[in-house]
């Protein structure tokens, strides 16, 4: 996704002028911020960052205030890979369009959690990564036909421009990865989004409801308006330490900022980030319960920096 975003943003901006503006959000992964910052650096553009509220929802009033006739793109995630917020994609896209800007959606984190309908969402460009929805390490991009036809691609002269789906392919296709991509889509279709969303909702709520004392959940406090991706911190246990202890107990979690730099700054967590728990459709209620037990246990046994508490 990141490589595609650097390439496509540059392609989109060929005719843009100094002073043109881009709006990103504090919920974005850096893969949908740095391409715009680099473009801004090269072409003297301005990048604004849309604020979030106390529950890590996008501040739509702030977004409205940032839009103007200079806005070329509103770049935003479908879901946050750090705090799990699901954005009102169609609403954000409509605001972008009212301002004459493109709606540029990063669907990487939403990919494994729900169905993506680019037309209903009003996306002009949508980028995603099949490895997040159980496929191979491949990037994918959707672009509205008229838009893609209007862009001049960066590509070698002998490679054709038609059909439009091939217009932005730069060389020999990654056929083996594409076969894996098709298999991943078939796998998800076989499971069905109804099951995925209902099951994840149930497990996520189970996790939220029983989060042990001392752990703080950052972001949307119920499963409505989020995916089951949880950034949590403990008052006396560093995220890196907690991740290591959970790893010893067989739980694969991550700590730090997961490249979601702006949200960590906004939450005052830029130094150590947070512990990230990600639940998906193949997890079970038993796993969630065991994880909750492990969170309680490590918080009792280890204090900051892994020193055993004095009493032990
Ligand atoms: C929301 C989001 N956007 C972008 C990316 C980057 O994707 P890729 O690794 O395919 O470049 C990630 C990866 O974690 C992500 O979670």
Task: Give a structural overview.
- Helix content is 37%, strand content 15%.
- The strands form two sheets. It has a six-stranded mixed β-sheet. A four-stranded antiparallel β-sheet has the order 7-8-10-9, with helices on one face.
- It is an alpha/beta fold.
- Strand 1 (21-25), helix 2 and strand 2 form a beta-alpha-beta unit.
- The chain has two domains: 2-184, Aspartate Aminotransferase, domain 2 (3-Layer(aba) Sandwich), CATH 3.40.640.10; 193-301, Aspartate Aminotransferase, domain 1, CATH 3.90.1150.10.
- It is globular, with a radius of gyration of 21 Å.
- Helix 1 (2-12) runs parallel beside helix 2 (34-43).
- The structure holds pyridoxal-5'-phosphate.
- Pyridoxal-5'-phosphate binds next to loops.
Terminal CA distance reads: 47 Å
Work out the number of β strands.
Answer: 10
Q: In percent, how helical is the residue content?
A: 25-40%
Judged by helices, strands and strand pairing, the structural class is: alpha/beta
Query: How would a textbook summarize the main sheet?
Result: 6 strands, mixed
Defining key terms:
alpha/beta, binds pyridoxal-5'-phosphate, 6-stranded mixed β-sheet, 312 residues, Aspartate Aminotransferase, domain 1, single chain, Aspartate Aminotransferase, domain 2, 37% helix, 4-stranded antiparallel β-sheet, 2 domains
